[in-house]
Write a structure and sequence with these properties.
about 260 residues; alpha+beta; Glutaredoxin; two-stranded antiparallel ribbon; 8 helices; 12 strands; Putative dithiol-disulfide oxidoreductase (DUF899 family); DUF899_thioredox
């Protein structure tokens, strides 16, 4: 890539101050969007979902672990791209989701804010636990296999089960873009927010696709640099495959 031009310190300062004004404007705009997000209405969750975790069966309210708020990261698993290429190694989670979750550190700060963070995948628990052990993550991870959870939140699409929808777009809209056509059949990723009022659970927010990019601090750091982001999110490898690591080698496929 071409590096930025070389200028005097005074010229640099003038350009930096111009950018600073734009950064502050963007931050104020983001603050306004955040305020609107907090004010979104809530939807009562009347359907019962049964998940499976390390401690056994769990309901949606159990995922809160007694806290007031719940963040669910919908982690892609049995994706259509893998099936299309005849890949039988479906005991791996999505590489893009893995890149995302690699950025999640200790959860104590969230817990101290009365908020629980969990992962949910439409995969057998045994497969989830093998992959979780490989990646070294300790985040609570639940299987939604056998429930309607993924379909109801439009992170799994199967036209025989429910109408196709992803990121609030119908099948016809998704088919028109190569960036979204892959989610017409199979899993997608998202993050959903729930709040609990005593024993009643409410859904307040779900964001898909680049809406989860805020979790990826690698991008936030690289966005500060002249060399930019070297890869799209679907091009990042599993971290244990760098330099010939032991992980599987089909990490670069879109999922």
């Amino acid at each position: 890539m071409t590096l930025p031009q070389v200028v005097s310190r005074d010229e640099w300062l003038a350009a930096r101050l111009k950018l600073l004004a734009q950064e502050k404007e963007a931050m104020r705009a983001q603050d306004a969007v955040t305020a609107q997000r907090r004010e979104l209405p809530r939807v009562r969750m009347d359907k019962e979902y049964v998940f499976e975790g390390s401690a056994g069966k769990a309901r949606l309210i159990d995922l809160f672990e007694g806290r007031r708020q719940l963040l669910v990261y919908h982690f892609m698993w049995n994706n259509s791209a893998a099936r299309a290429r005849g890949d039988q190694a479906l005991d791996e989670g999505c590489p893009s989701c893995s890149f995302t979750i690699d950025h999640v550190g200790h959860l104590e700060h969230l817990h101290a804010s009365d908020t629980t963070f969990v992962l949910v995948s439409r995969a057998p628990l045994a497969e989830i636990e093998r992959f979780q052990a490989r990646m070294g993550w300790t985040i609570p991870w639940y299987s939604s296999a056998g429930s309607d959870f993924n379909y109801d939140f439009h992170v799994t699409n199967d036209e025989s089960v429910a109408p196709v929808e992803f990121n609030y777009k119908d099948k016809a809209t998704l088919e028109r873009s190569p960036k979204t056509s892959f989610v017409i059949n199979g899993d997608g990723q998202a993050i959903s927010v729930f709040v609990r009022d005593e024993d009643t659970v409410f859904h307040t927010y779900t964001t898909y696709g680049r809406g989860t990019e805020f979790m990826m601090s690698t991008y936030q750091f690289l966005d500060l640099t002249p060399m930019r982001r070297p890869r799209y999110v679907n091009q990042w490898p599993y971290r244990d495959t760098y330099n010939g690591g032991a992980g599987h080698s089909h990490h670069a496929h879109h999922c």
